[in-house]
Design a protein that fits this description.
alpha/beta, about 30% helix, Archaeosine Trna-guanine Transglycosylase, Chain: A, domain 4, Transcription Regulator spoIIAA
Length: about 400
């Protein structure tokens, strides 16, 4: 086997890698010794300290700000089929220990030692996202390893995420194994949801919030609930399942709301569900003007802070959304509010919620703070992997 090319770092730029992180930025590379323009996108490399000490193996993309990712700290284990099979096997073993049904995120990128690879499992179907040039280059080996270790009947590549554009990769979806069903049924705590892996958001479903949705039963038995940014109704139908007599689901997508209705009917809850299409902020303002009130308000928006430079505007959006949500929440009611912006820390998120509460003239009690489920494990050295924040708060007037 031919030895991989070497990528040498500048002096003292190995500290983060030695601490367990795996990202290398272009300004950390000794471009005199190893010019970035000499590498092909996705090329496997051995990563060296400034002094020439082997730090492990990874891959490089000279056209990306994160120009390299370390995959293994073992200098004796280059990238290849054996490594992919081992890592996927480790990921599968964890999920099989945690879940009694094969519905979960199977591979969560850096946290499973496979940076640039995301795999969601829907029974015998795997939905795969290759988000970096390195994983795209290793695509045949990755797919072969998934077939060997997991044995799916179908594999769908959902390579339509905008992250690929940052890596200079094309956007496309492709069925690479078997036949793709139009819809898949996902079971969750007594409910059944139809999801569309090919056309739905992300890979069709949001497994990361599953355990937070389970927490609803502990904190309330709602009479009237509001699910904002509902997508296909995961939160709203859970509230109805817990006994809510009326649930209003708000989403900007007519297609998503149509699926909310289908899922409600599938679970015998159609008479309790109402869909409202529109912008979340505008619908909340209208509900306030109409004097509508709910004893459970759930806010699960898309990321408002996708880049560092979006932080100020994004914080204002979180503050405004939570203020509007609290303005239609009954005193003593429960606010469940989330952020999936990994650039936004827990404390900053709580501060934005509190600022929104003060503007709504409402006090808050934080009852519980949730994160992503264990099928989205957090890498202790990579804070970017701890992205999901879900707060359960009681509204208390006069605080």
């Amino acid at each position: 086997m031919t030895s991989p090319a070497s990528l040498r770092l500048n002096k003292d730029q190995d500290r983060r890698l030695l601490a367990g992180h795996c990202w290398i930025y272009s300004n950390e590379v000794d471009t005199q010794a190893t010019p970035l323009k000499g590498f092909e996108p996705g090329q496997a490399v051995q990563i060296l300290s400034h002094g020439g000490h082997p730090l492990g193996h990874g891959y490089v993309n000279p056209h990306s700000l994160i120009c390299a990712r370390l995959v293994t700290h073992d200098p004796r284990r280059p990238l290849g089929p054996a490594l992919w099979e081992q890592r996927i096997g480790q990921a599968l073993a964890l999920r099989e220990q945690l879940y009694d049904q094969p519905f979960y995120r199977l591979v969560f990128g850096e946290s499973d030692g496979l940076p640039g690879l995301v795999v969601d499992r829907y029974g015998d179907l795997l939905v795969v996202q290759l988000t970096t040039a390195g994983m795209e280059r290793a695509r045949p080996e990755i797919l072969a390893a998934l077939e060997t270790v997991v044995g799916p009947t179908s594999i769908l590549l959902r390579n339509d995420t905008s992250v690929r554009e940052l890596e200079g990769l094309p956007l496309a979806n492709e069925v690479v194994l078997g036949d793709l069903p139009v819809d898949i049924e996902v079971p969750e705590q007594g409910n059944r949801f139809l999801v569309s892996p090919l056309t739905g958001q992300k890979t069709g479903w949001f497994y990361d919030q599953a355990e937070n949705r389970d927490r609803l039963a502990r904190f309330c038995q709602p009479r009237r609930a509001l699910d904002v940014c509902s997508y296909i109704g995961a939160w709203g139908l859970r509230a109805a399942h817990l006994g809510a007599e009326e649930v209003v689901c708000v989403d900007s997508s007519a297609t998503a709301l149509e699926r909310v209705g289908e899922n409600a009917e599938r679970n015998g809850l159609l008479d309790r569900i109402t869909g409202v299409q529109g912008d979340a902020f505008e619908v909340l303002r209208l509900l306030k003007e109409q004097g509508e009130r709910f004893d459970l308000v759930m806010l699960d928006p898309p990321a408002f802070i996708k880049r560092r430079k979006d932080e100020r505007e994004g914080l204002q959006a979180y503050q405004r959304l939570n203020r509007l949500g609290l303005e239609v929440l009954e005193p003593g009611g429960l606010l469940v509010t989330s952020s999936c912006s990994f650039h936004l820390g827990r404390d900053e998120f709580l501060r934005a919620i509190q600022q929104g509460a003060r503007r709504a003239n409402m006090g808050l009690q934080l009852l519980e703070f949730g994160g992503q489920g264990p099928d989205h494990p957090i890498h202790p050295a990579i804070p970017e992997t701890a992205y999901l924040k879900t707060c359960f708060l009681r509204a208390v007037p006069g605080f």
